[in-house]
Amino acid sequence: MTAPPTEAGLLPLAPRNPLPYRQLLKLVRALDTGQLTIRAAGGPVTRIQVVPKWLFPPFVAVFSPDAIRDVIGRNDALSERCIVHDEVRDMAGDSLFVLPNELWRPRKRALQPVFTKHNVRSFGGHMSRAAEEFVEDRRAGGEVDLDVECRRITMQSLGRSVLGVDLNDSAEAIAEHMHVASAYTADRALRPIRAPRWLPTPARRRAQFAVRSMLKITADMLQACRDDPTRDAPLVRALMAATDPETGRGLSDEDICNDLLIFMLAGHDTTATALTHALWLLGRHPEAQDRVVAEATAVGDRQLEPDDVPRLGYTTQILHEALRLCPPAAGVGRMTLHDIDVAGYRIEAGTLVAVGIYALHRDPAIWPDPERFDPDRFSPENVKARDRWHFLPFLGGGRPCIGEHFARLETTLALATIVRALRIESHAADFPVDVPFTTVARGPIPARVTPRG
Ligand code: HEM
């Protein structure tokens, strides 16, 4: 699969994308749909040279399963964090998301136990309850904004499950801060010409204020755990117990707060988008909604639990199809450390490689009629027959999403809980999104909810 660097040296460079420079500049910044036009013009592995190398690193976009596997499925010593992660690190300090591979390993080892498939089951009660509270509030039925409601549900789930706090009242303020900070970093990372970091531009000052506001929230979380040793906050406790393998010293308060911030960011927007999109889809497809209701009702008239998930197979299919059509991480970036072989092309050391998850999920060679909503693409037989590199909402390879089991459990329990109690009718025929960093609904996403008899 992966040629050693010397062998890669004999391969041709990926073909240069033929689109005009100005168009490419725009497309690269449309983090989701831009991928489709770039691939249509340049193929599944395409080199994008919009400015001289001394201004911006060489840039290659990869869209096919084998090329993606060659980038992220390899020994991670050959591909590293990229300019996007560097910008996040500059703005919000060290964290699991941004640490270079070498420093990342011990942090990952310390935090992984909180997020295993087995351990996240203990959070199931919080997850179902957050969705039930929404259902209770809407017993009278009426008009809702699915975007706002799902944000609240996922923020509550995350807060109560791993952070030891109820984030209910601050959900909207946190979401706003997160968008300001993440939009600034992604935008900056993809600019061929950037203002120096020391220059206090208005956008940078706004992003810094947003980060400071979130760090204050995380500092309060940490203090609350110190003040009350019985407080149930597994992620905060894991960070407090983590040690540096070389020095044996614990993490600084600053590092703990930075990690908590990144978990709020990575663990909230993403699941909120997945749940909102799945509910919106069900609100447009009553027949699929009826099937979810039937299986969730068959479980019984009680709170749904992690043990019920195997009986919620069609609900899971809906979530997979929602994640295919609207992957919350539309793409990810890596930096190559050596020349590497990617689907028969040489990608030079120091290249920014953009992995196009959005385009992969809409590849007509893998997904016939890719725009059509069809949960049967994820029937047990179809899943069994599918290559694992065809569907990558949580990425994969050496550095996948640590929150995958958490997100899967949370969205499955929430979707089944809500739809079992309330009929959803989505008013809008489209699901508009913004992609400041991760993909978020461009709310409002209006729907009518009606209690089921
Ligand atoms: C539907 C929901 C989610 C999706 C689609 C998703 C997707 C992803 C993807 C694609 C990455 C790789 C990013 C990169 O390498 O640049 C990632 C990383 C990460 N995710 Fe998620 N995620 C979701 C939910 C969560 C949740 C619930 C949490 C935590 C509670 C979380 C925490 C993280 C963290 C900390 C990383 C960095 C991991 C590392 O580098 O080791 N995510 N996620």
TrEMBL record:
The gene is ptlI_1. It comes from Mycolicibacterium vanbaalenii. Belongs to the cytochrome P450 family. Gene3D superfamilies: Cytochrome P450. Keywords: Heme, Iron, Metal-binding, Monooxygenase, Oxidoreductase. The keyword Iron applies. It is an enzyme of class 1 (oxidoreductase). Its cofactor is heme. Pfam families: p450. Heme binds at C401. It comes from the Bacteria. This is Pentalenene oxygenase. Its EC number is 1.14.13.133. GO terms for molecular function: heme binding; iron ion binding; monooxygenase activity; oxidoreductase activity, acting on paired donors, with incorporation or reduction of molecular oxygen. The lineage of its organism: Bacteria, Bacillati, Actinomycetota, Actinomycetes, Mycobacteriales.
